[in-house]
Amino acid sequence: MLTRAGIVRLLEDAGVQVVGEAEDPESLLRRVRSTRPDVAIIDIRMPPTHTDEGLVAAQAIRRDYDDVGVLVLSQYVEPDYALRLINEHPQRVGYLLKERVFDVVILLDALRRIHEGESIVDPTIVSRLVGRRRRHDPLDELTAREREVLSLVAEGHSNRAIAEALVVTERTVEAHITQIFLKLGLREQPSSHRRVLAVLAYLRGQLGARHHS
After folding, report:
1. Three-state secondary structure call for residue 106
2. Which tens digit of pLDDT belongs to each residue from 106-130?
3. Same structural domain, 90 and 190
4. Looking at residue 192, which CATH number applies to its domain?
5. Which of 5, 61, 101, 111 has its CA 20 to 30 A from that of 92?
6. DSSP string of 31-57?
7. Is the peptide bond before 190 cis (omega within 30 degrees of 0)?
8. CA-CA distance, 15 to 139, in Å (whole number)?
């Protein structure tokens, strides 16, 4: 309850309209059905069991309301849950640690990207999985720099932010991403959707490596 109140206050202070609050999955789904928000922010652990009710509700929202994005919050790093959500609904979804969303800049950026159709994964999850490889993984064809670029894409960074982080031009980043798409076989689709699929391929590879290590 305190976390929800804090997030509501942050959003309202930033000029974001909060159309409703919910204490459990049933009231959450009713609110979404009646208000059709741009994005629903959901705690992964909700009553009655406080396990994955929030995740199940997020999956139901993405299944039933294509125009409503979901941002799932977790107190712990749970990459299996993140992959489960993105694997089934690869667009307009996000998974962040609760501690991250109290930085209003991060929260607003995540909401904007999700509303625009992207997927957002907490950098802590991405960094924990980096470097653990599977045998015969399709990502093995990527160069070290391409994997670095894809890792930053998976964290939700724009091409401009990636260019600044790697101290290269935006055109160079675009070239790397084009090569990533080609090597992962992501052809003849809108660029935004291919970014989501590339992130999904990346997370599958890293999570598979974790399970086999």
Report:
1. helix
2. 999 999 999 998 888 888 777 665 5
3. no
4. 1.10.10.10
5. 5
6. HHHHH--SEEEEESS-TTTSSSHHHHH
7. no
8. 41
The answer to whether 197 and 180 have CB atoms below 8 angstroms apart is: no
Residue 3, pLDDT score: 82
Indicate if the pLDDT at residue 131 is higher than 50: no
**Residues 108 and 9 occupy one common structural domain:** yes
CA 87 to each of CA 26, 82, 90, 136, 192: distance values in angstroms, whole numbers, following the listed order: 24, 8, 6, 20, 16
Task: Compute CA distances 133 → 79, 93, 98, 128, 211, whole Å.
Answer: 15, 25, 28, 12, 10
What letter does residue 104 receive in the DSSP assignment? H
pTM: 0.66
For the segment 40-69, what is each residue's pLDDT rounded down to a tens digit? Answer: 999 998 888 888 899 899 999 999 999 999
Tell me, yes or no, whether 29 and 93 share the same domain: yes
* 131: number of Cβ within 10 Å: 11
- The least confident of 13-27, 31-45, 55-69, 86-100 is 86-100
Q: What are the tokens at 134?
A: 């599977």
Residues in contact with 158: Cβ distance below 8 Å, sequence separation at least 6, in sequence order? none
In a shared domain, residues 9 and 104: yes
Question: Where in the sequence is the domain holding 165, given as residue range(s)?
Answer: 130-212
